[in-house]
Write a structure and sequence with these properties.
Blueprint: H1 2-14, E1 46-48, E2 55-57, E3 63-67, E4 70-73, H2 74-86, H3 96-115, H4 122-140, H5 143-149, H6 155-180, H7 187-195, E5 204-205, E6 208-216, H8 222-242, H9 246-253, E7 265-269, H10 277-283, E8 295-297, E9 300-310, E10 313-321, H11 327-345, H12 351-358, H13 362-365, E11 380-382, H14 388-394, E12 406-408, E13 417-427, E14 430-431, H15 438-464, E15 467-469
Antiparallel strand pairs: 1-2, 3-4, 3-15, 5-14, 6-11, 6-13, 7-10, 8-9, 9-10, 12-13
Helix pairs in contact: 2-3, 3-6, 4-6, 7-15
Length: about 475
């Protein structure tokens, strides 16, 4: 388990958003998502590819390794290590050999994604790149400082390089998702996984809480709803009649924080994706290039534009607008929660009964208001891993104490709400117990199974792909058989 964890941590560090942003553009796919080495490297040495018929010539100086159609330069390793340090990541256990191995993995995934036609759209890459650049500008203070940091003369060259890097990263991630997409874990496999862990090596889970809540979601008036519907119809007409850009409209008007910076874009949506059912029903009823009429979900009102249909998958853009909630409605929700809280304290009904009868949150009301951990859908929240906002809301609550109404904006893009919270159970730090911690153990077992599937895939594709490692790196103790001994 230690080896698995260490490998996963290293992989996540390297795949962080923007982590490769200083790397050479030689090591990324072109707009066609293929980049033959001969198109960018000088012809000074022959390299044999997957078949003996095709020969390529590349410049060897400064090349750390070649994976398929991707070249990794020595400078790429240096720049990635610098990026890790600049972002505050611990590099104490990261060696150049280990870093090169992870960069080679990334390129093997991307190379095979192209072979398997697991492509990413240019619009998706462009939207991701734009959002990333805006975040980097806000972090560094100005575009001028950002250009200086990345040693670029103009915005266009910066966007081009980061875009190419993002395309490689997105191809890599898509390939990895595809490898593990159908992997499931059975209860028997979970049991076997747990039993093979020596008792003195079983994980220790930190102190945990179970938390329940009652939510009041103020409702907009019918007049406010109609204003939003009219606005969305106006946007739709401008798109259909005047060829206005849906992407630009989404950036200007959408209130969905997750997709607004990308022009409302969501990709690879299936009928099993975790979107609102109404949202999916509308999306899958549309043709490619069609814009929906306005429709309502729990988050507000939407229009959808279908950008691409690939079999059972959709790429779409949407615009979300929420009707205004009056201060009177907000005050009414707070007052109602004050009354509910007092009646629970007076013993007129339990917190769970109050949640069932009065809460507006469908996801929790039928379970006594019990919150589910979004990382594993368990009911327990480990204190050291809790969302900081939720932690601050409950950290001072004693047993059987109920918070006063708390105002909260919906982070998923819904309207404002008030809620009251109660800590319903506390669990001390303890060594993993199969029955008590089944959900966590199940996730660990699934992670190991996914890891093994990826390792097997890696071994098979290393054998089938042209790979060359520079002589000075051939002595590295790689986790994978890159040297093909």
């Amino acid at each position: 388990m230690h080896k698995i964890t260490k490998s996963l941590i290293l992989g996540s560090l390297i795949c962080m958003q923007g982590i490769l942003s200083a790397q050479s553009s030689n090591a990324v796919a072109s707009d066609s998502q293929e980049e033959p080495m001969a198109s960018t490297m000088q012809a000074e040495a022959e390299i044999k590819k997957d078949t003996s018929e095709n020969l390529k010539r590349i410049k060897l100086d400064g090349i750390a390794a070649v994976v398929g159609d991707y070249v990794i330069l020595d400078s790429d390793i240096d720049k990635t290590l610098i990026d890790l340090k600049s972002q505050g990541a611990s590099t104490e256990d990261i060696t150049r050999c280990g870093l090169l191995g992870k960069l080679m993995e990334d390129r093997l995934y991307a190379h095979q994604a192209v072979q398997d036609s697991l492509l990413v759209s240019d619009d998706e890459v462009a939207a991701t790149t734009e959002a990333q650049i805006q975040e980097l500008v806000s972090r560094t203070g100005s575009m001028a400082k950002l250009l200086k940091f990345y040693k670029k003369d103009d915005e266009a060259s910066l966007r081009e390089e980061i875009g190419k890097i993002n395309k490689l990263r997105m191809l890599s991630e898509k390939m990895q998702r595809d490898i593990i997409s159908e992997i499931e874990i059975t209860p028997e496999e979970v049991r076997q996984f747990f039993n093979k862990i020596p008792e003195d090596e079983r994980p220790v889970f930190g102190a945990e809480l179970e938390i329940s809540q009652i939510v009041k979601q103020p409702k907009p008036t019918e007049a406010e709803k109609q204003k939003v519907i009219d606005k969305l119809n106006t946007i739709k007409a401008d798109i259909e009649d005047n060829d206005a850009s849906f992407s630009v409209k989404a950036i200007l008007y959408s209130q969905d924080p997750g997709s607004k910076p990308r022009g409302g874009l969501y990709t690879s949506i299936t009928k099993k994706s975790g979107f609102d059912k109404t949202f999916k029903d509308v999306a899958f009823s549309l043709r490619q290039g069609e814009v929906s009429d306005p429709f309502e979900t729990m988050f507000g009102f939407h229009i959808i534009y279908i950008e691409k249909i690939r079999g059972q998958e959709l790429d779409l853009r949407h615009i979300l607008i929420q009707p205004e909630i009056s201060q009177e409605a907000l005050d009414g929700a707070k007052s109602e929660l004050d009354s509910i809280r007092q009646k629970v304290l007076d013993g007129k009904f339990t917190f769970a009964e109050a949640a069932l009868n009065f809460s507006d949150e469908k996801e929790t009301k039928f379970d006594g208001g019990l919150l589910r951990n979004p990382t594993n859908f368990d009911s327990k929240f480990e204190l050291t891993k809790m969302d900081p906002t939720l932690y601050n809301q409950v950290r001072n609550l004693k047993d059987n104490e109920i918070s006063y109404p708390i105002f909260e904006e919906d982070p998923r893009g819904g309207g404002p709400k008030y809620k009251i919270l109660k800590v319903t159970n506390r669990y001390d730090e303890h060594i993993a117990d199969f029955a008590r911690d089944y959900t966590k153990i199940q996730q660990l077992a699934l992670t190991e199974k996914q890891y093994n599937a990826i390792k097997k895939w890696m071994e098979e594709h290393i054998e089938d792909t042209y790979i060359s490692v520079n002589d000075k790196n051939r002595e590295c103790n790689f986790a994978n058989n890159w040297v093909k001994n």
